[in-house]
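Ticket #4471: structure output looks truncated?

Reporter: J.K.
Steps to reproduce: submitted the chain below (210 residues) through the standard prediction queue, then opened the result file.
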Amino acid sequence: MLEKLPEVIGHALHGMRAGLDKIVFNALGVRQGMASISLDSVAFVDHGPLPPRYTADGEGVSPPLQWTGVPAGSVSLLLVVEDADSPTPNPLVHAIVVGLPAGDGKLDEAALPSRENDGDAALHVGRNSALQAAWLPPDPPPGHGIHRYAFQLFALDSAPEFSATPGREEVFDVLKAHAVASGLLIGTCERPDGAIKLPKTAPAGPLAAG
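Returned output as attached by the reporter:
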């Protein structure tokens, strides 16, 4: 999504970042004492790099996630993935999933639909910043530095009825009223200077300039 920006633009925008304070996890301003959920992945460690397989430079499928510590009395779970370092006023949304069963659980690799993957049809997937009900693979601009992708899981005290493809504003309002626990996992991605994203089926011979 942003990899098409020239490197000079990536450098110019280096100081322009949405910020971790604006991700849903931190922007909610929820009541003190919210319970903590342990959110992990077998594919990457907290604040570690996302393998290319899960980014726009690879297959672009969603990574596996697993969680424990969902408090008793929770009725449903909600997942939001955002880029805290996008050069935009608010973080870019990379995925939303609502209506996940309460309790310890997981999402398998490629569970979310993506460009070449149908995903798990049983999931209620919301709308990302590309206006798609899908996983939006990390795609930072060349030269913009490290981007932090915030995987945020929330436990709710109800099972709200969402629209067909809920967006960030809709889920934010629901979370303000019904979130009782939360978990956060950060994965990073960087496209350094001179990085070129190759097409999935690159033609033989040298690449044309431009």
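Triage note (M.O.): checked the attachment and the full token line is present. The radius of gyration is 17 Å.
Status: closed, working as intended.
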